[in-house]
Design a protein that fits this description.
This protein has 330 residues and is an alpha/beta fold. It has 13 helices and twelve strands. The two termini are 38 Å apart.
Length: 330
């Protein structure tokens, strides 16, 4: 929805509403400089778009004319608009930008939209932006325990929270349980000030941020006060059985093997568990084995348990994050 608003700000679009084929559309560019960057050397970028979406694409006098099957024209125009936004924001356009944009749009066309998450709030939907994210959502729907492993910015936590809210609001589960190991600062919960929510709150900030992005502040507070959203540190899980709950364990690479076992054995009836983490970012002291790494070996071939691996190609934060992750892999 926002994209449509932004598009109107940037582009003047002429649309042919006739129902017969071939379907035609056009984009009017603002000036020769942006046209030159968008087209690429010897129109290489336009040829990539044309071949990827199997359309006729003609550039003349600052106007891009698209013609072909309607779905292909719409997808190609979406790709071109995304590329124009990059040009206008950065002043440059790389081959990597073009190839990634084509892939993203093709993934949307090929089925990521069918994995849209209904938040049941003013027809709000969260949609995956990559094929990997779509597979992640599909795995959560089909399995009771899902491990999602991947680098920062791939949507591991955000999509888990969206699914949790969707399951809660649909009535499939009765509450959301949030957990995260508290090892980053080397502190124990007992030494931190405040009640249990105050103690754990700093560690659960990414989960709070995701929830706040999907619900208004008043609703979040209401859900927390009524325990529809429950904060449950790993240290307090022993002896609990979590029925009819959607349980998220974030940053699971920082769980010990013992903590992971304690957590996983809390699973009750009609519950879903999503475990997220990045096995390249283990902060456990003394080289202790990560419970997430251990879980890969133990449960890889167990029915109703799925492992989803996201990559830097699934990163949907600022485009520099992909390059930063790649740089640290060298």
């Amino acid at each position: 929805m926002n994209q449509g608003v932004e598009t109107q700000k940037y582009l003047t679009v002429k649309e042919n509403t006739q129902e017969f084929l071939p379907y035609k559309d056009a984009i009017i560019l603002e000036n020769d400089d942006e046209a030159s960057i968008l087209y690429g050397n010897h129109d290489k970028n336009l040829r990539l778009i044309r071949d990827a979406f199997q359309i006729k694409l003609v550039a003349r006098n600052g106007i891009l004319k698209l013609e072909g099957e309607k779905g292909s024209v719409v997808a190609a125009k979406t790709a071109l608009i995304k590329l124009l936004e990059i040009v206008r924001f950065t002043g440059v356009l790389s081959l990597k930008d073009v190839e990634q944009t084509i892939m993203d749009v093709q993934n949307d066309v090929e089925g990521t939209s069918r994995q849209a998450i209904n938040l049941f709030q003013k027809e709000t939907f969260i949609r995956p932006k990559t094929q990997g994210q779509a597979e992640y959502i599909d795995a959560i729907r089909k399995n009771d325990l899902v491990f999602c492993i991947g680098p920062a910015g791939t949507g591991k936590t955000y999509l888990a929270v969206a699914m949790a809210l969707s399951f809660l609001k649909s009535g499939y589960t009765k509450r959301i349980v949030l957990a995260r190991p508290a090892v980053e600062a080397g502190e124990k919960l007992g030494y931190l000030p405040g009640d249990i929510k105050d103690k754990v709150s700093p560690y659960l900030r990414p989960l709070y941020d995701a929830i706040a992005d999907m619900m208004d502040v008043g609703q979040v507070k209401k859900y927390l006060d009524s325990d529809l959203i429950e904060i449950l540190p790993l240290a307090y899980m022993r002896g609990r059985t979590l029925n009819s709950a959607f349980i998220i364990l974030d940053e699971a690479q920082n769980c010990t093997v013992k903590q992971m076992k304690t957590f996983l054995t809390r699973l009750g009836t009609k519950s879903k568990v999503v475990v997220t983490g990045d096995i390249t970012q283990v902060d456990l002291p003394g080289g202790e084995l990560s419970g997430l790494i251990d879980a890969q070996e133990r449960f890889m071939n167990v029915d109703n348990i799925a492992f989803v691996y996201l990559t830097k190609g699934d990163i949907v934060r600022h485009k520099l994050v992909q390059d930063i992750v790649a740089a640290y892999e060298l």
